[in-house]
Amino acid sequence: MRGITEKEAVELLRKYSNDKESFSKVLNHSRAVQKLALEIADDIKKNHEVDIDFVKTASLLHDIGRFKCYKENSIRHGFVGGEILSKEGLTKYVRIAETHIGVGITKEDIEKQGLDLPLKNFVPETTEEKIISYADNFIFDTKRVKISRVIERFRKKLGEKHIKRVIKLHNEIEKLRGRNNFL
Predict the structure, then answer these.
(1) CA within 13 Å, CB half, 108
(2) Phi, psi (5° rounding) for residue 102?
(3) Buried-most residue among 24, 51, 73, 159 (CB within 10 A)?
(4) CA atoms within 13 A of residue 164's CA, in its CB half-sphere
(5) What is the rounded CA–CA span in Å between residue 71 and residue 94?
(6) Could you give the 3-state DSSP secondary structure of residue 12?
(7) CA atoms of 136 and 111, how far apart (whole Å)
(8) CA atoms of 134 and 171, how far apart (whole Å)
(9) 6-176 carries CATH number 1.20.950
(10) Dihedral sign for Cα atoms in the order 92, 135, 39, 65
């Protein structure tokens, strides 16, 4: 599985963008996610193995599917992003795109909510997948928010079941970071 540089990741975003405005919006958001993801990864690497270079590049690519799903704020953009990355021969990054949405989408979520996705689990599993998914939840456009805002947003959109998953991921990441900021 080949990797790419940060510069190549930006050029790939440019290749799939619809126009300068959408490119700028996705790139700026992805850079904000990247900054937070790298802060988290830096904390984690003190006690656990984490691929910093992968996090740096993958965080830029997590929203590449937005360019094909730009007319609606579709959760399909993760799956579509995975298809784009696969087509480009970048299978190493596919799961980052597929699993970054919220705290992951389960087969049960897809069935119960009638989501337009293949019936499989899109849940982050690796440390790097979890870091990027977690960081993405804290970035609203380009602004970093507190965990209370993340929880509030999930509560409004998806309900209490998803709050439990947000808290579980939060606690897992904070533990990996060596912090005691548990909920």
Answers:
(1) 4
(2) 60, -125
(3) 51
(4) 3
(5) 22
(6) helix
(7) 24
(8) 11
(9) no
(10) positive
Residue 1 or residue 39, greater confidence: 39
Give one word for 74, left, alpha or beta, with left for phi > 0 and alpha for psi -120 to 50: beta
3-class DSSP state of 145: coil
Which helix (H) or strand (E) covers residue 85, if one does? helix 76-87
Instruction: Please state the domain extents for the chain.
Output: 6-176
Report pLDDT digits (tens) over 80-101: 999 999 999 999 999 999 999 9
Residue closest to 131 by CA, chosen among 96, 182, 105, 93: 96
How far apart are alpha carbons 59 and 46 in whole angstroms?
20
State the Cα–Cα distance between residues 44 and 178, nearest whole angstrom.
7
Note if the pTM is more than 0.90: yes
Nearest to 5 by CA among 68, 86, 61, 65: 61
SS3 string, 34-57, reads HHHHHHHHHHHCCCCCCCHHHHHH
